[in-house]
Design a protein that fits this description.
Largest sheet: 5 strands, antiparallel
Number of helices: 6
Number of strands: 7
Number of domains: 1
CATH topology: HIT family, subunit A
Length: 186
Amino acid sequence: MLTHMTTEPEQQIGVGTQDAFQRLWTPHRMAYIQGENKPSGPGADDGCPFCSIPAKSDEDGLVIARGEHVYAVLNLYPYNGGHLMVVPFRHVADYTELDGPETLELAELTKQAMTALRLASGAHGFNIGLNQGSAAGAGIAAHLHQHVVPRWGGDTNFMPVVGNTKVLPQLLADTRQMLADAWTLR
């Protein structure tokens, strides 16, 4: 959600030096930076959002599809529009902890996600991956989740490089509905 953008340099107010940069204010990212919705510990009962999402409605939890062992859910802090994750229902931290049926369904829902994203948004490519452990960049290391990030030619511009900000053109609820509809059409 874009809440404020200046087209003129900010006026000097009290401290700081006026410059020629435009500012995109994205205060909703502060929740992520401060660790909101991150588990307080390693267990399923320690506030894990991936354990609580399945109890919500698809709309409230931003769930796109549910399988027997895993589900697909939109990322609350997406890198691109349509960025989703495939998550096992069972609270496991490491890929090697998945059993055979969970591993197979994780792979199958990832394929289905790619198909739905191509159908719904014309994605040209994907970044797909697991960040195993906090040292590898996992924001919620206690519960395994595989990222599926749609990509388009030219989708990276100056904003993430210079401004460390990603501009997303669609609300998450609208993206969830678009992908859920496409999922059933595949």
